[in-house]
Hints:
The chain is of the alpha/beta class and 193 residues long. Helix content is 35%, strand content 21%. It has five helices and seven strands.
Amino acid sequence: MRPSGVPTWFRRSSAVALAGVLLAGAAAGQQRRLIQPQKLAPYVTSPQPIVVKMLEIAGLKHGEMLYDLGCGDGRIVATAAKEFGAKAVGVELSPALAKRAREAVESQGLQQQVKIIEGDMMGVDLSSADVVALYLLTEANEQLRPKLEKELKPGARVVSLEFRIKGWKPARVEKVEAHRHPYTIYLYQRPQK
Length: 193
């Protein structure tokens, strides 16, 4: 059985990062309170076939705007631009990962379609997003939910790898396997007004 709905492979690959966050919080004597999403989003890469499947499930179209919150090495935003003809913004808190994402975008000649923002995802305006891509833990999704509800335009889609957005009903749930690991992709759509 997988505790808290976290896949076994994810727990193994990020156990050290999560343990460090939890121990640091306990050592600081923190009470149960909201933790910034970046503290709940250890860097774990998504296999390229899963990235493509996420964007297909989201129904990303040519010319649409995609935001990847916690973009890591930039593979989702680069794929959105290169394979789907979308515009994309990646938001990454880690300076090293933001630099790596920028370098990946530049090496593929995608600077006109992709922008990488080094900063906190909570401070980025999402009102122009047609699609938001997430690979954050459930707790981070939960904290991000009010921002998504406030800023996303009607009909905007949110595609989340592995972790649900509590309180939202997915429009689609798809299980996919890549590199001998099962993945679950959740698609949400903001109501049309």
